[in-house]
Amino acid sequence: MLGSVKRELGFGERINHERPMARHIPYLRHRSDRIIGLESGALVGVIKLNGLFFQTEDQAELNMRSAVQNTMIRSLGSSRYSVWSTLIRRQVDATLEGSFDNEFCAMLDAGYMARLREKRMFSNELYLTVVQSRPHTVLGAGETLKKALERLFGRAADQQHGQDVADLEEVIERILQDLSKYGARALGIAHRAVTEDPVAGTDKPAPLKPYSEPCEFFNSILTCGLPSRMRLPRMGIRNYIGTARLHFNRRSVMAQAATKAGDRYGAILSIKEYPPFSEPGMLDGLLKVNQEFVLTQSFTLADRPIAQERISRLQRQLGASDEAGSSVEDDIDFALDSLLNQEAVFGTHHFSLLCLARELEGLGKSVSELGACLTDKNITWLREDLNLEAAFWAQLPGNHSYVARKSMLSSGNFSGLSSMHNFAIGQSEGLHWKTPISILETNSQTPYWFNFHQRDVGHFLVTGPTGSGKTVALSFLLAQAMRVQPCPRAVFFDKDRAAEIFIRAVGGTYEVLTPGRPTGFNPLQIENDGPNRGFLLKLIKTMIGPGGRDDLSQEDEDCLERALLRLMVEPKHARTLSQFSSLLVGGSRSNANDLNARLRSWIDGDKAWLFNAAEDVLSFEGNRTFGFDMTHILSNEAMRTPALMYLYHRLDALLDGTPVMFFMDEGWRLLMDDTFSAFIVDKMKTIRRFNGIVGFGTQSAADIVRAKASRTLIEQAPTHIHFPNPRADEASYKESFGLTAKEFAFLKTTAPETRTFLIKHGTDSVIAKLDLSGMPGLIKVLSGRKANLEEFDALRAEFGDEPKNWLSRFCGSENLL
Length: 817
What we know:
Rossmann fold, P-loop_NTPase, 38% helix
């Protein structure tokens, strides 16, 4: 711009005084997909981590992981390397989109998500950046000279640069392996669909465009934590990143974004005096503070002779001072021994905590709360003023020249200060059912994206005593699952009618299997094909048990098979147990315990109510949710197993590849039965292949453990949900379910009123909370308390089965639907 033009502009004079941000940004360009080149010739690679889910890990595990980090840093082995850890805690809008066909599910979701939006929820993003500098110490002079001579005698500079990139790539791969438990992933060039740029005039999906993940990370630091997607730049990175205008004064910085909502105000805290010792997770308290921040730490390795000389000099100084013979001198001796024994390396450490607020008035509170966390760990801190701007630029990995406050620490100290701990957040993308089921709160104010599935397996187990909130939580999750498209169908095998109100509220059908009251079931009227005939033969053998197949002679088995083949060719209305019994006459030797005698109780005896209907009315057509109350037959083996076998066989009609959910309350009783246990374990494999999931609920983990198929069941269920249980037995939870001491202590000592529970999902272990306060009417629908059932029965008797006629009155709101 011409100077004469500037003078004519309203802010022309101010333009002359603007300092470009690029002067303070060291990054030039991508040297490879994952490596960034710096102006100084250094290289950086950025790793993003989910973190170590420390909340429920035993201390021994945390100590071991800290030792692994220490070893990882020691393995770098050269002052060329420095490690920068960055923790960005930002406020997020915890909301989950989804459409619901059912009015009650939509209303429940709207109310729950509205309450989540009212709360401040945060995400914690962890990054580890490895910086490979050019040799710059006395010890590195020889290497520098060697490289200069190589270039002088014809070795191309780009060959050397290529080797440097390869060396750093190798270091990155090694760190990814060491931190695999942390969910480590190297950032690089990512190809993403540009949804706002579809191919014009066609149905083709949007093309994939390259984005730079390292640039997005660097830009988040410069915008005080505000995330943004950044395309792979064609210009230099230093001129590309930095999408907010920065304003510095003596005690604070403002990042002015494109809109007011993106503005951030910040103040930086630094360490004035370090604590006397460090420990794994010593700064984990920051992960629970109700504030946004950016925490940056760096550790630049010192060559061993230099570190040894500095420690020895300090040792001599202490020996000549009043501290001689004190614990301080012992600590120095220990540090020197650690260095000489190669148990640790030493280097320079720098620390900055950028406290953030969205309004200037809130910055003081942010500084106070975050500073209190440092004080609790015996860290003496100060708020930067004259050094504020330098401290801000020093947050950028590789910006060594801006670091003003640094101290020599060991790699073990750094592992304690930067433990890379975090809370599990679940998974929100790349899911088997495309969308998360729901969002749950954690006690760190972070959202947890809940899913049943790990890859394509979605079976789950739920444990919790009466009154723990198990029924409410389970009904809530099933209601939330209705956001999946296509909408799942659900079948609930219930006990004590706990889920009846919910099932009828979503328009489902519900049947109570009561001895003496005909069910309308007739298995013999299913379609006549090979698999069905094989099932019917197995069912009849179970019915005439008690041993099923084991106590039948070959003659009896042949007789049953012949009679079944003859019956199944008859019209459906002619296929009854009475007719089947008549076909058995003369087929085997008659006696008091022959096949006819065994079958008699199912025809006109005490079991006739279950399967002797003239017409089979069981159907899974025309509805999406079904419930069967099994209370009266759960303890009756003779009735329980055949009933469940028939229901589960008929449920095959639902297995067409669309999502389907089955849940069995008090399912442990069924697993105690050898016949049904083998049947359901095999059925779970079939259900999984056809996009279905099976859940088992019980009051105690010991109930499941006692079942013969417990090991198979536990292994096939990637999701375990445990509610607090003061009577929890250690052997079942810790040995069979693999809970840690901390996880078991949570279940044993937590009051049910907290409405918290433990979720174990793959590698995730998180204490979640379901807060439905403010929705008492909806909670009544999800709960199966006796008083609620009595009120529900009275309303149904008066207004009928249609939810629109009774639900509003039941919830206490005439305008509910």
